[in-house]
Write a structure and sequence with these properties.
The protein is α+β, with helices and mostly antiparallel strands. Helix content is 28%, strand content 19%. Strand 1, helix 1 and strand 2 form a beta-alpha-beta unit. The model has no long low-confidence stretch (mean pLDDT 85).
Amino acid sequence: MSVFGVDEHEIAVTCSAELNLPNVDVMLVLDMSGSMVGQRVADLKDAVFEFYDQVTMTAPTGARVRIGVVPYSGAVNVGQILRETNPDFLAESFQY
C-alpha cells in the first residue's frame, strides 16, 4: 500500500474453525500370534474396545465411522476374498 501513500491501515478479521469429518475409516491389525496368550490377549481386547469407545465418542454428529479388524497369527492374505468380491480391487501390475 505504500505505493498509494498508505503506510499502515487497520483491518478487523473474524475467523472460525470447524471439525468436519464425514467419514472415518480405521483398520486395526491385531497380533494373535503364539506370543499373545493369557493377559496379553485380555489387554488387547480391552484396548480395542477402549479405542472404539474413544473414536465413536469424539466423532462429529453425522460422521460415519467404520472400524475394521484383521487378526493375524503369521500371515494375512485377503487376496482371495477381494478377488471374489470384486476382481478389479487387485491389479497384477501398476505403473506409477
